[in-house]
Amino acid sequence: MYNTLARIESQLAAIELDYLRKTYVALRPKFLERATAITVIPEFWSTVIDEAPAEIDQRIQPRDIPALKCLTGLDVERFEVRDADSGEPRSIKITLTFKPNKWFFDTKVEKIYYWRMSKNGWSGLVSQPVTIRWKQKDLTDGLLDLAVNLWKKELDLETNVGEGRDLESLGEYQVLVDKVQRTPQDAISFFAFLGFRGHRISAEESAAAMENAQSNVEVAKGPERPNEDPPSLPDSEIFPHGEEVAVALCEDLYPGATHYFTTAKQRDTKVSDQELVSDVSDSDDSQNVNAFGHGEHQRRPNKKAKISA
């Protein structure tokens, strides 16, 4: 009985993946068409970011807002999808486009997330750190550069001495961990998500784990149960919520961008009308206004500072 359930669950997962793949292929042309259409709409993406769901909004610091006002494009691509019938649809590439600004030299930044499975059954998104060439003060306070430096050192070790070197003995590792431990989590810049790495799972390990999981299903053993608790992220992780932010960008903010934008504009128009009525009411009959409880306008609470203002 349990083997049958495991087989059914595996088949359901395969159907969901196939649906995701086909949906992406069908919708992609329309999202590209939308990207062209919104180029003539001022502050479209800064308005959308201002309406972002909590998974994104709570990661934005006040010091990030001036730079985010320069955002002119956001694209999400499931880059490993080859066609409607093949390719891994859970891997994503997030591209941020900025107008020339005083904060950094880059006008386009790409962050790639790979879907991986570990040998112990954990699965999720992993990535590589991406640097930003700052013109002024580094909004991540050096965390992003330190993460990139450690990653480059690891690549150098793998190329020249092979795997097996204790990374915790590296000076780059210790410097980064010390910096992470001294930085409050609620003070980390949104731009530090570019340094997210997640669990260290290679493409080779992931392929072997997926093959093993599939083999278990085919022989009616059922997939191996993952650990009850997900493995802890390395101490050198600078943005522990990187996967959460990526999923929110990919599955919520990006596909729902037009909804977020129109909702913001409709609310702003309504608030403007209410303010006009309130100004007149305050001067003519303020007692009646207060009696009905409309002395203060009810509106969505502002962020730390409004991005699209």
List key phrases describing it.
11% strand, alpha+beta, 9 helices
Provide a short characterization of the protein structure.
With 309 residues, the chain is an alpha+beta fold. 47% of the residues lie in helices and 11% in strands. A hairpin with a 2-residue loop joins strand 2 and strand 3 (86-87).
Describe the structure.
The chain has 309 residues and is of the alpha+beta class. The protein is built from 9 helices and 6 strands, in the order ααααββββββααααα. The strands form 2 sheets. A 4-stranded antiparallel β-sheet has the order 1-4-5-6, sandwiched between helices. Strand 5 and strand 6 form a beta hairpin. 24% of the residues are buried. Mean pLDDT is 85; it is low at 283-302.
Could you give the topology of this structure?
Blueprint lengths: L1 H36 L6 H7 L3 H4 L7 H4 L2 E7 L3 E3 L2 E2 L4 E7 L9 E10 L5 E5 L15 H18 L10 H12 L20 H16 L23 H12 L3 H35 L18
Antiparallel strand pairs: 1-4, 2-3, 4-5, 5-6
Q: How many strand units?
A: 6
Unreliable residue stretches: 283-302
Number of helices: 9
Helical proportion? Answer: 40-55%
Shape by Cα distribution:
globular
**Structural class designation:** alpha+beta
Q: Assess the beta-strand content as a share of residues.
A: 5-15%
Could you give a short account of the major beta sheet?
4 strands, antiparallel
Order of helices and strands: HHHHEEEEEEHHHHH
The first-to-last residue Cα distance is 59 Å
Mean pLDDT: 85
